[in-house]
Amino acid sequence: MRATANIDSYTGEPTSLAMPESPTRCLKQFKRMFVCLKSLDKNFSDEKALKILEHLTESSIDKRRVDTLKILQESKEELTTNEIAKRMKIGIKTAKTELCVLWQLEFLEMREEEQKNSYGSVYNTIRYWKVRQNSYDIFDSKQKTLSPHQKANSKVHK
User: Fold this and answer.
1) Residue 129, domain extent
2) N or C: which end of the chain has fewer CB within 10 A?
């Protein structure tokens, strides 16, 4: 979920591939923070240190990206970019950015539908979004497996 991408300021679409943060990098950082917290006081409990790390984890995730995924997971049908922006009460460009990043990370599927005028020229393209069936469900704490793409990304970005 933590990823960076260069975004075109006019269209709101990524101009490069989204680069996800390596899970091993995060794990190393959390391990270091845990050790540092424990070194503050001899009586510093593991539970307190883990609670602090949990708070850090939740605060470092892009809330809009998580909200976008939740809206799509709760929906029974595909949603357009405009529908998602309305539900989130954000701009269309912002919604498009988050959707494109999630699509590049293979959390979402996208279908495009061209609208043509009476002369056959395309004047608009509507994008429909839904959660990818085989993606890792980040909201299901019981599920511990990654999709093949996510496994490959974790190896590539070490």
Assistant:
1) 3-156
2) C
CATH of residue 21's domain is 1.10.10.10
Neighbours of 31 (CB within 10 A): 11
pLDDT tens for each residue of 51-67: 999 888 878 778 898 89
Q: How far apart are the first and last CA of the chain?
A: 16
Q: What is the pTM of this model?
A: 0.63
